[in-house]
Design brief:
This protein starts with 6 loop residues before the first helix and ends in a 27-residue tail after the last helix. It has helices spanning about 5-10, 40-45, 45-50, 55-60, 90-95, 120-130, 145-155, 160-175, 190-205, 220-235, 250-255, 270-275, 280-285, 295, 325-335, 350-360, and strands at about 25-35, 65-75, 80-85, 105-110, 115, 130-135, 210, 240-245, 255-260, 265-270, 315, 335-340, 345-350. By secondary structure, it is an alpha/beta fold. β4 (about 105-110) and β5 form a beta hairpin. Helices cover about 35% and strands about 20% of the residues. The strands form three sheets. A six-stranded mixed β-sheet has the order 6-7-8-3-9-10, sandwiched between helices. A four-stranded antiparallel β-sheet has the order 2-1-4-5. It binds adenosine-5'-triphosphate. The site of adenosine-5'-triphosphate (ATP) has 12 residues, from β2 and α5. GO terms for molecular function: ATP binding; ATP hydrolysis activity.
Protein backbone atom coordinates (compact mmCIF):
# COMPACT_ATOMS: atom_id res chain seq x y z
CA UNK A 1 0.00 0.00 0.00
CA UNK A 2 1.21 3.49 -0.78
CA UNK A 3 2.86 5.38 2.02
CA UNK A 4 2.80 8.68 0.17
CA UNK A 5 -0.93 9.26 0.33
CA UNK A 6 -1.68 12.85 1.22
CA UNK A 7 -4.02 13.86 3.97
CA UNK A 8 -6.76 14.80 1.53
CA UNK A 9 -6.37 11.63 -0.51
CA UNK A 10 -6.75 9.59 2.62
CA UNK A 11 -9.87 11.45 3.54
CA UNK A 12 -11.12 11.26 -0.01
CA UNK A 13 -11.18 7.49 0.31
CA UNK A 14 -13.49 7.75 3.20
CA UNK A 15 -17.00 7.39 1.94
CA UNK A 16 -20.02 7.95 4.04
CA UNK A 17 -18.57 10.84 5.98
CA UNK A 18 -21.15 13.18 4.53
CA UNK A 19 -23.84 10.89 5.84
CA UNK A 20 -22.66 11.70 9.34
CA UNK A 21 -23.85 15.29 8.88
CA UNK A 22 -26.69 16.03 11.21
CA UNK A 23 -27.24 12.32 11.91
CA UNK A 24 -28.80 11.32 15.22
CA UNK A 25 -26.41 10.62 18.08
CA UNK A 26 -25.29 7.14 19.01
CA UNK A 27 -23.64 8.31 22.21
CA UNK A 28 -24.84 11.42 24.03
CA UNK A 29 -22.64 12.59 26.86
CA UNK A 30 -23.57 15.45 29.15
CA UNK A 31 -21.67 16.97 32.06
CA UNK A 32 -19.44 13.92 32.46
CA UNK A 33 -16.88 13.83 35.26
CA UNK A 34 -14.43 11.17 36.33
CA UNK A 35 -12.55 11.96 39.49
CA UNK A 36 -10.05 9.52 40.97
CA UNK A 37 -9.29 9.73 44.67
CA UNK A 38 -10.93 9.94 48.08
CA UNK A 39 -14.57 11.11 48.24
CA UNK A 40 -14.47 11.82 44.53
CA UNK A 41 -18.19 12.62 44.39
CA UNK A 42 -17.81 15.89 46.21
CA UNK A 43 -15.61 17.42 43.47
CA UNK A 44 -18.22 17.82 40.69
CA UNK A 45 -20.86 18.67 43.32
CA UNK A 46 -18.90 21.58 44.79
CA UNK A 47 -18.41 24.53 42.42
CA UNK A 48 -15.40 25.71 44.37
CA UNK A 49 -13.60 22.36 44.09
CA UNK A 50 -14.77 21.92 40.49
CA UNK A 51 -13.11 25.19 39.55
CA UNK A 52 -9.68 24.32 40.98
CA UNK A 53 -6.71 23.63 38.73
CA UNK A 54 -5.45 20.06 38.56
CA UNK A 55 -2.55 20.81 40.91
CA UNK A 56 -4.71 22.70 43.43
CA UNK A 57 -7.32 19.99 43.39
CA UNK A 58 -4.70 17.35 44.07
CA UNK A 59 -3.11 19.24 46.96
CA UNK A 60 -6.46 20.16 48.55
CA UNK A 61 -8.29 16.86 48.13
CA UNK A 62 -5.83 14.23 46.90
CA UNK A 63 -8.10 13.77 43.85
CA UNK A 64 -7.34 13.77 40.12
CA UNK A 65 -10.09 14.97 37.80
CA UNK A 66 -9.30 12.91 34.70
CA UNK A 67 -12.50 14.04 32.91
CA UNK A 68 -14.04 17.39 33.80
CA UNK A 69 -17.54 18.37 32.82
CA UNK A 70 -17.41 17.01 29.28
CA UNK A 71 -20.41 17.07 26.90
CA UNK A 72 -20.62 15.85 23.32
CA UNK A 73 -22.52 13.62 20.91
CA UNK A 74 -21.07 10.88 18.72
CA UNK A 75 -23.19 10.86 15.57
CA UNK A 76 -24.23 7.78 13.72
CA UNK A 77 -21.75 6.85 11.01
CA UNK A 78 -18.99 9.27 11.95
CA UNK A 79 -15.39 8.71 12.95
CA UNK A 80 -15.14 10.66 16.20
CA UNK A 81 -11.56 11.18 17.31
CA UNK A 82 -10.57 11.95 20.89
CA UNK A 83 -7.17 13.58 20.74
CA UNK A 84 -4.84 15.04 23.34
CA UNK A 85 -1.45 14.70 24.96
CA UNK A 86 -0.63 11.93 27.40
CA UNK A 87 -2.64 12.32 30.60
CA UNK A 88 -5.29 14.61 29.07
CA UNK A 89 -8.04 12.11 29.88
CA UNK A 90 -8.71 10.39 26.54
CA UNK A 91 -8.70 6.80 27.76
CA UNK A 92 -10.67 7.60 30.87
CA UNK A 93 -13.30 9.41 28.82
CA UNK A 94 -13.74 6.61 26.30
CA UNK A 95 -13.74 3.92 29.00
CA UNK A 96 -16.52 5.79 30.76
CA UNK A 97 -18.72 5.40 27.67
CA UNK A 98 -19.25 1.71 28.41
CA UNK A 99 -18.49 2.06 32.13
CA UNK A 100 -15.23 0.13 31.98
CA UNK A 101 -14.49 3.05 34.28
CA UNK A 102 -17.40 4.24 36.45
CA UNK A 103 -18.15 7.93 35.86
CA UNK A 104 -18.34 10.18 38.90
CA UNK A 105 -21.09 12.46 37.56
CA UNK A 106 -22.98 13.29 34.39
CA UNK A 107 -25.11 11.38 31.93
CA UNK A 108 -24.27 8.96 29.11
CA UNK A 109 -26.84 7.58 26.70
CA UNK A 110 -26.46 5.11 23.85
CA UNK A 111 -29.30 5.34 21.34
CA UNK A 112 -31.22 7.20 24.01
CA UNK A 113 -30.73 4.49 26.66
CA UNK A 114 -29.21 5.58 29.96
CA UNK A 115 -25.86 3.77 30.28
CA UNK A 116 -25.43 4.73 33.93
CA UNK A 117 -28.71 3.02 34.79
CA UNK A 118 -27.77 -0.30 33.15
CA UNK A 119 -27.47 -3.38 35.35
CA UNK A 120 -24.57 -5.80 34.95
CA UNK A 121 -26.23 -7.99 32.35
CA UNK A 122 -27.21 -5.00 30.25
CA UNK A 123 -23.70 -3.58 30.54
CA UNK A 124 -22.20 -6.87 29.43
CA UNK A 125 -24.48 -6.88 26.42
CA UNK A 126 -23.52 -3.27 25.68
CA UNK A 127 -19.83 -4.11 25.63
CA UNK A 128 -20.25 -7.36 23.72
CA UNK A 129 -22.77 -6.37 21.09
CA UNK A 130 -23.10 -2.64 20.82
CA UNK A 131 -19.78 -0.96 21.54
CA UNK A 132 -16.73 -3.20 21.07
CA UNK A 133 -13.29 -1.98 22.03
CA UNK A 134 -10.05 -2.48 20.08
CA UNK A 135 -7.10 -2.06 22.44
CA UNK A 136 -3.49 -1.24 21.83
CA UNK A 137 -2.55 -4.46 23.56
CA UNK A 138 -4.94 -6.65 21.75
CA UNK A 139 -4.96 -9.47 24.32
CA UNK A 140 -4.89 -12.28 21.79
CA UNK A 141 -5.01 -15.82 23.09
CA UNK A 142 -1.53 -17.18 22.30
CA UNK A 143 -2.44 -20.84 21.96
CA UNK A 144 -5.38 -20.30 19.65
CA UNK A 145 -5.31 -19.90 15.92
CA UNK A 146 -6.09 -16.59 14.22
CA UNK A 147 -9.51 -17.92 13.27
CA UNK A 148 -10.33 -18.98 16.82
CA UNK A 149 -9.10 -15.67 18.20
CA UNK A 150 -11.38 -13.82 15.82
CA UNK A 151 -14.28 -16.10 16.70
CA UNK A 152 -13.66 -15.66 20.42
CA UNK A 153 -16.17 -12.86 20.96
CA UNK A 154 -18.84 -14.93 19.25
CA UNK A 155 -17.92 -17.96 21.34
CA UNK A 156 -18.43 -15.89 24.48
CA UNK A 157 -21.82 -14.94 23.12
CA UNK A 158 -22.71 -18.61 22.71
CA UNK A 159 -22.89 -18.57 18.92
CA UNK A 160 -22.71 -22.17 17.57
CA UNK A 161 -19.30 -23.28 16.28
CA UNK A 162 -20.13 -23.60 12.61
CA UNK A 163 -21.76 -20.19 12.53
CA UNK A 164 -18.99 -18.40 14.38
CA UNK A 165 -16.28 -19.96 12.24
CA UNK A 166 -18.07 -18.85 9.09
CA UNK A 167 -18.41 -15.32 10.44
CA UNK A 168 -14.77 -15.30 11.60
CA UNK A 169 -13.64 -16.45 8.18
CA UNK A 170 -15.56 -13.62 6.55
CA UNK A 171 -14.05 -11.00 8.85
CA UNK A 172 -10.54 -12.43 8.52
CA UNK A 173 -10.83 -11.88 4.77
CA UNK A 174 -12.17 -8.39 5.33
CA UNK A 175 -9.07 -7.30 7.26
CA UNK A 176 -6.64 -8.91 4.82
CA UNK A 177 -5.56 -11.94 6.83
CA UNK A 178 -6.71 -14.62 4.44
CA UNK A 179 -4.35 -17.60 4.40
CA UNK A 180 -3.22 -16.96 7.97
CA UNK A 181 -6.24 -18.46 9.70
CA UNK A 182 -4.34 -21.34 11.27
CA UNK A 183 -1.35 -19.38 12.51
CA UNK A 184 -0.84 -18.59 16.17
CA UNK A 185 -0.55 -14.91 17.20
CA UNK A 186 3.18 -15.40 17.91
CA UNK A 187 3.68 -16.18 14.24
CA UNK A 188 2.33 -12.80 13.15
CA UNK A 189 3.88 -9.34 12.90
CA UNK A 190 2.63 -6.54 15.15
CA UNK A 191 0.49 -5.11 12.36
CA UNK A 192 -1.03 -8.50 11.60
CA UNK A 193 -1.79 -9.03 15.28
CA UNK A 194 -3.53 -5.68 15.33
CA UNK A 195 -5.62 -6.82 12.39
CA UNK A 196 -6.63 -9.89 14.37
CA UNK A 197 -7.68 -7.61 17.24
CA UNK A 198 -9.67 -5.49 14.79
CA UNK A 199 -11.26 -8.56 13.21
CA UNK A 200 -12.24 -9.88 16.62
CA UNK A 201 -14.05 -6.64 17.41
CA UNK A 202 -15.71 -6.58 13.98
CA UNK A 203 -16.88 -10.19 14.24
CA UNK A 204 -19.49 -9.31 16.84
CA UNK A 205 -20.84 -6.68 14.45
CA UNK A 206 -21.04 -3.88 17.01
CA UNK A 207 -22.88 -0.66 16.36
CA UNK A 208 -19.82 1.31 17.50
CA UNK A 209 -16.15 0.42 17.43
CA UNK A 210 -14.06 2.05 20.13
CA UNK A 211 -10.33 2.21 19.41
CA UNK A 212 -7.94 2.97 22.26
CA UNK A 213 -4.70 4.10 20.61
CA UNK A 214 -4.65 0.85 18.68
CA UNK A 215 -1.75 1.68 16.41
CA UNK A 216 0.63 3.58 18.65
CA UNK A 217 2.94 0.61 19.15
CA UNK A 218 3.28 -0.02 15.42
CA UNK A 219 6.08 1.32 13.28
CA UNK A 220 5.12 4.25 11.04
CA UNK A 221 4.60 2.34 7.78
CA UNK A 222 2.46 -0.37 9.34
CA UNK A 223 0.62 2.28 11.25
CA UNK A 224 -0.18 4.03 8.01
CA UNK A 225 -1.43 0.77 6.53
CA UNK A 226 -3.70 0.24 9.50
CA UNK A 227 -5.07 3.78 9.25
CA UNK A 228 -5.89 3.14 5.62
CA UNK A 229 -7.51 -0.11 6.66
CA UNK A 230 -9.75 1.76 9.07
CA UNK A 231 -10.61 4.37 6.41
CA UNK A 232 -11.42 1.61 3.94
CA UNK A 233 -13.53 -0.33 6.43
CA UNK A 234 -15.38 2.79 7.41
CA UNK A 235 -15.98 3.60 3.76
CA UNK A 236 -17.36 0.11 3.16
CA UNK A 237 -19.49 -0.18 6.25
CA UNK A 238 -20.15 3.34 7.54
CA UNK A 239 -19.88 1.99 11.08
CA UNK A 240 -19.65 4.55 13.87
CA UNK A 241 -16.14 4.73 15.30
CA UNK A 242 -14.61 6.45 18.30
CA UNK A 243 -10.87 6.63 17.98
CA UNK A 244 -8.38 7.72 20.65
CA UNK A 245 -5.05 9.08 19.54
CA UNK A 246 -2.36 11.49 20.68
CA UNK A 247 -1.17 11.86 17.10
CA UNK A 248 -2.55 14.91 15.30
CA UNK A 249 -1.86 13.54 11.83
CA UNK A 250 -3.75 10.38 12.67
CA UNK A 251 -6.63 12.48 14.01
CA UNK A 252 -6.73 14.60 10.85
CA UNK A 253 -6.57 11.58 8.58
CA UNK A 254 -9.27 9.60 10.32
CA UNK A 255 -11.60 12.05 12.02
CA UNK A 256 -14.85 13.43 10.72
CA UNK A 257 -14.78 15.39 13.95
CA UNK A 258 -12.09 15.72 16.57
CA UNK A 259 -12.48 16.42 20.28
CA UNK A 260 -9.22 17.94 21.48
CA UNK A 261 -8.67 17.35 25.20
CA UNK A 262 -6.53 19.15 27.70
CA UNK A 263 -6.46 18.48 31.46
CA UNK A 264 -9.71 16.51 31.32
CA UNK A 265 -11.67 19.08 29.32
CA UNK A 266 -12.57 19.25 25.67
CA UNK A 267 -10.95 22.48 24.56
CA UNK A 268 -12.32 22.25 21.02
CA UNK A 269 -14.65 19.95 19.15
CA UNK A 270 -14.93 20.30 15.41
CA UNK A 271 -14.03 19.06 11.97
CA UNK A 272 -10.36 18.96 11.03
CA UNK A 273 -10.96 22.14 9.04
CA UNK A 274 -12.52 23.92 11.99
CA UNK A 275 -9.73 22.91 14.34
CA UNK A 276 -6.93 23.84 11.96
CA UNK A 277 -8.67 26.91 10.52
CA UNK A 278 -10.30 28.35 13.63
CA UNK A 279 -8.35 27.20 16.69
CA UNK A 280 -10.36 27.92 19.83
CA UNK A 281 -7.40 29.22 21.83
CA UNK A 282 -3.63 29.55 21.88
CA UNK A 283 -3.22 25.96 23.04
CA UNK A 284 -5.04 24.59 20.00
CA UNK A 285 -3.26 27.08 17.73
CA UNK A 286 0.08 25.80 18.97
CA UNK A 287 -1.09 22.20 18.57
CA UNK A 288 -1.97 22.63 14.89
CA UNK A 289 0.82 25.05 13.99
CA UNK A 290 2.71 22.70 11.69
CA UNK A 291 -0.27 21.18 9.87
CA UNK A 292 -0.14 21.67 6.08
CA UNK A 293 -3.19 23.91 6.00
CA UNK A 294 -3.71 23.65 2.25
CA UNK A 295 -4.43 19.94 2.63
CA UNK A 296 -7.05 20.42 5.33
CA UNK A 297 -8.75 23.70 4.49
CA UNK A 298 -11.38 23.86 1.78
CA UNK A 299 -11.92 26.56 -0.83
CA UNK A 300 -14.78 27.98 1.23
CA UNK A 301 -12.13 29.66 3.38
CA UNK A 302 -10.69 31.56 0.43
CA UNK A 303 -13.89 32.25 -1.48
CA UNK A 304 -15.19 35.71 -2.37
CA UNK A 305 -18.17 36.89 -4.40
CA UNK A 306 -17.73 36.53 -8.17
CA UNK A 307 -18.10 39.35 -10.68
CA UNK A 308 -20.42 38.59 -13.60
CA UNK A 309 -17.45 37.83 -15.79
CA UNK A 310 -15.68 35.63 -13.22
CA UNK A 311 -18.85 33.61 -12.64
CA UNK A 312 -18.80 32.50 -16.26
CA UNK A 313 -15.19 31.41 -16.72
CA UNK A 314 -12.28 29.61 -15.11
CA UNK A 315 -11.97 26.09 -13.76
CA UNK A 316 -14.79 24.76 -11.56
CA UNK A 317 -14.20 23.32 -8.09
CA UNK A 318 -16.60 21.76 -5.61
CA UNK A 319 -17.03 23.56 -2.27
CA UNK A 320 -15.26 20.63 -0.61
CA UNK A 321 -12.14 20.98 -2.78
CA UNK A 322 -9.04 21.60 -0.72
CA UNK A 323 -6.98 24.75 -1.02
CA UNK A 324 -4.20 22.58 -2.38
CA UNK A 325 -6.42 21.40 -5.23
CA UNK A 326 -7.53 24.97 -5.89
CA UNK A 327 -3.95 26.21 -6.05
CA UNK A 328 -3.25 23.62 -8.70
CA UNK A 329 -6.34 24.59 -10.71
CA UNK A 330 -5.57 28.32 -10.52
CA UNK A 331 -1.92 27.77 -11.39
CA UNK A 332 -2.77 25.61 -14.40
CA UNK A 333 -5.42 27.90 -15.81
CA UNK A 334 -3.96 31.25 -14.87
CA UNK A 335 -7.51 32.34 -13.94
CA UNK A 336 -9.61 32.58 -10.82
CA UNK A 337 -11.39 29.29 -10.10
CA UNK A 338 -15.13 29.07 -9.60
CA UNK A 339 -16.63 27.25 -6.65
CA UNK A 340 -19.61 25.45 -8.07
CA UNK A 341 -22.30 23.52 -6.24
CA UNK A 342 -25.00 21.75 -8.25
CA UNK A 343 -24.42 24.04 -11.22
CA UNK A 344 -24.54 27.22 -9.14
CA UNK A 345 -21.47 29.43 -8.79
CA UNK A 346 -21.03 30.18 -5.08
CA UNK A 347 -18.01 32.41 -5.54
CA UNK A 348 -14.45 32.43 -6.78
CA UNK A 349 -10.98 31.90 -5.39
CA UNK A 350 -7.86 33.64 -6.60
CA UNK A 351 -4.22 33.00 -5.87
CA UNK A 352 -3.88 35.77 -3.28
CA UNK A 353 -6.76 34.46 -1.18
CA UNK A 354 -5.48 30.89 -1.46
CA UNK A 355 -2.02 31.95 -0.31
CA UNK A 356 -3.55 33.76 2.63
CA UNK A 357 -5.15 30.51 3.76
CA UNK A 358 -1.80 28.72 3.46
CA UNK A 359 -0.11 31.48 5.44
CA UNK A 360 -2.82 31.43 8.07
CA UNK A 361 -3.65 35.11 7.54
CA UNK A 362 -7.12 34.58 6.05
CA UNK A 363 -9.69 35.78 8.56
CA UNK A 364 -12.42 33.18 8.12
CA UNK A 365 -14.19 34.05 4.91
CA UNK A 366 -17.69 33.48 3.58
CA UNK A 367 -18.94 30.00 4.28
CA UNK A 368 -16.21 29.36 6.80
CA UNK A 369 -16.51 26.18 8.76
CA UNK A 370 -18.08 27.78 11.80
CA UNK A 371 -17.72 27.33 15.51
CA UNK A 372 -16.68 24.42 17.63
CA UNK A 373 -19.22 21.67 17.81
CA UNK A 374 -21.25 22.80 14.85
CA UNK A 375 -22.42 20.31 12.28
CA UNK A 376 -19.77 19.83 9.69
CA UNK A 377 -18.58 17.69 6.87
CA UNK A 378 -15.46 15.59 6.86
CA UNK A 379 -13.53 18.81 6.43
CA UNK A 380 -11.43 17.16 3.81
CA UNK A 381 -12.70 16.77 0.31
CA UNK A 382 -14.00 13.54 -1.15
CA UNK A 383 -14.59 14.84 -4.64
CA UNK A 384 -12.37 17.83 -5.05
CA UNK A 385 -13.03 18.98 -8.56
CA UNK A 386 -16.61 19.66 -9.63
N1 LIG B 1 -6.90 4.64 38.17
C1 LIG B 1 -6.44 5.89 38.27
N2 LIG B 1 -6.21 6.44 39.48
C2 LIG B 1 -5.75 7.70 39.61
N3 LIG B 1 -5.50 8.51 38.57
C3 LIG B 1 -5.72 8.03 37.34
C4 LIG B 1 -6.19 6.69 37.12
N4 LIG B 1 -6.31 6.49 35.79
C5 LIG B 1 -5.93 7.63 35.20
N5 LIG B 1 -5.57 8.57 36.12
C6 LIG B 1 -5.12 9.93 35.85
O1 LIG B 1 -6.11 10.58 35.07
C7 LIG B 1 -5.50 11.42 34.11
C8 LIG B 1 -5.99 11.03 32.72
O2 LIG B 1 -5.48 9.74 32.39
P1 LIG B 1 -5.81 9.01 31.02
O3 LIG B 1 -5.15 7.68 31.04
O4 LIG B 1 -7.27 9.05 30.79
O5 LIG B 1 -5.12 9.98 29.98
P2 LIG B 1 -4.77 9.72 28.44
O6 LIG B 1 -5.00 11.01 27.77
O7 LIG B 1 -5.51 8.55 27.94
O8 LIG B 1 -3.23 9.41 28.54
P3 LIG B 1 -2.32 8.43 27.64
O9 LIG B 1 -2.30 8.99 26.26
O10 LIG B 1 -0.99 8.51 28.32
O11 LIG B 1 -2.95 7.07 27.72
C9 LIG B 1 -4.01 11.29 34.30
O12 LIG B 1 -3.59 12.35 35.13
C10 LIG B 1 -3.86 9.97 35.03
O13 LIG B 1 -2.71 9.97 35.83
Amino acid sequence: MSTTTTVQEAAAERAGAEDAKGAEPVFSVDGLWKVFGPKADRVPADPELAALSAAELRSRTGCTAAVRDVSFDVRKGEVFVVMGLSGSGKSTLVRCLTRLIEPTAGTIAIDGEDVRAMDRARLRALRRHRAAMVFQHFGLLPHRSVLDNVAYGLEVQGVPKRERRAKAQEVVAKVGLEGMEQRRPGQLSGGQQQRVGLARALAVDPEVLLFDEPFSALDPMIRRDMQEEVIRLHGEEGRTMVFITHDLNEALRLGDRIALMRDGRIVQLGTPEEIVGSPADDYVREFVRDVPREQVMTVRRAMRAASAQEAGEGPALSPEATVSQAIEAVARSGQTARVVDQGRCLGVVDSDALLEVVAGTANGSAGSAGSAGSAGSAGLAREGVA
